[in-house]
Amino acid sequence: MQQSSLVQKFLEERDAVLGFLIALTRDFQVAEEIFQEVSLVVIAEARKDIDVQNVAAWVREIARRRVAEYYRKRSRQAPTSPFPESLADVIDQSFAENEELLEQQQTRMRFLLECLRKLTGRSRELVQGFYHRRQSLQQLADSMDWQVASVKVALSRARNVLGDCVRVKMQTVTEEQSHE
């Protein structure tokens, strides 16, 4: 796997890796810190142009080792119970078993972004205002000089359009995979 594709695949796995780290550490700040360390390791290894067959499993192993290292360092500074390796095994197995679901979710999210780009005019403005800028229905209604009920109807229609678009794209992928 080329350097850029290994790093790209790692970036696509970002949420899963961070979720894995949060599950292991139960602390978002610690997970973020360890994620940064894992990122440096992945970049350094990518420069060596190594061949990685299963990037998700490879990155989880790097993450596991960094978490273990974190707890070893921490236990030297203050007496704490060591991180149970059996718990890490269970968490790793859980993530491995759900890789396919994660890939489907990532595909669905990619399709949603594609479908969002196709939305135009007021529909796009409403969806971005409501979901991205976290504006209330009243704020959206005020900014568009509409009634709140009209905003609700327009948002509902936009969601339906997006849902249909994503379903069609997912169905196409499923059909293509079944023909392979």
Commentary on this structure:
There is one protein chain. The chain is built from nine helices and no strands. With 180 residues, the chain is mainly alpha-helical. The longest helix has 32 residues, at 148-179. The protein is extended. The chain starts with a helix and ends with a helix.
Q: What is the CATH topology descriptor of the largest domain?
A: Rna Polymerase Sigma Factor, Chain: A
Mean pLDDT: 85
CATH architecture of the largest domain: Orthogonal Bundle
What is the 3D shape?
A: extended
* Poorly predicted ranges: none
Highest CATH level, the class of the largest domain: Mainly Alpha
Helix content: over 70%
H/I helix tally = 9
- Number of DSSP-assigned strands: 0
- The share of residues in extended strands comes to under 5%
Distance between the termini: 23 Å
Q: Could you spell the SSE succession in H and E letters?
A: HHHHHHHHH
Class based on secondary structure composition and strand pairing = mainly alpha
Radius of gyration (CA) equals 21 Å
Major beta sheet, specifics? none
Q: How many domain regions?
A: 2
